Amino acid sequence: MKIYTRTGDTGGTALFGGGRVSKDHPRVEAYGDVDELNAALGLARAIELMPRVDEVLVPVQRDLFAIGALLATPDHAKMREQLQKARIDDERIAELERAIDDCEQELEPLRSFILPGGTPKSGALHVARTICRRAERRVVTLAQEVELPALVIQYLNRLSDLLFMLARVANRRAGAGEVTW
């Protein structure tokens, strides 16, 4: 099978379960930003191995792949299947919250805004956090047009908080200080 199909040469793309839309359709924008976030997390993982941080990110990347598939699925029955297959549920969101809580125990309380940066690992996690926020905005926009599971927005919201905390943890573990605003 060749990687190129030529079916998108006129600016359209196929959706899971059938149908075609323009490549700038809100659905494509949403799952494209989720895909970009996943790639940014892959880059963050590739920069300086940090076992506990990276162990949190691998399942998140799997979640994001499943969320992207869900967003690319216009059929509601298939969308529910994707959500169940992805294991994106209240318990998964609680797992993200527990990971945030674990980070908080390792860090000094935040007393002011901090500027993104520090180590390359932390910087990559901050970039991923901002991509996550954009993906969340795109999913909110899409949810105004089509019915989407609320858990997708909740997941992205919680994930951006987790990425912020992981960026702080990466700096702390590397001995890099935080620059306040």
Account of the 3D structure:
- By secondary structure, the protein is mainly alpha-helical.
- It is built from 6 helices and 2 strands.
- The chain has a single domain, classed as Cobalamin adenosyltransferase-like (Hypothetical Protein Ta1238, Chain: A).
- The termini are far apart.
- Helix 1 packs antiparallel against helix 2, helix 1 (26-46) runs antiparallel to helix 5 and helix 2 runs antiparallel to helix 3.
- It has helices at residues 26-46, 51-71, 76-86, 90-106, 120-143, 150-174; strands at 12-14, 20-22.
- 35% of the residues are buried.
- It is elongated, with a radius of gyration of 17 Å.
- A two-stranded antiparallel ribbon has the order 1-2.
Rg: 17 Å
- Strand tally is 2
Please list the strands of the largest sheet in the order they lie side by side: 1-2
The description of the largest β-sheet is:
2 strands, antiparallel
**CATH class, please?**
Mainly Alpha
The span between the termini is 52 Å
CATH architecture: Up-down Bundle
